[in-house]
Amino acid sequence: MYKGKNSVKDDKRCRLFSSGSKSIINKIIWLSIMLFLFAGLAPVIVNAHPPKSVTLAYDVAAKVLKVTILHPSFTPSWHYIKTVTIEKNKQPLGSYPYQRQTGDEFSYTYEIPVMSGDILVVNVFCNMYGSRTEMIKIPEIKTP
Question: Does residue 84 contact residue 96 with C-beta atoms inside 8 Å?
Answer without folding.
Answer: yes
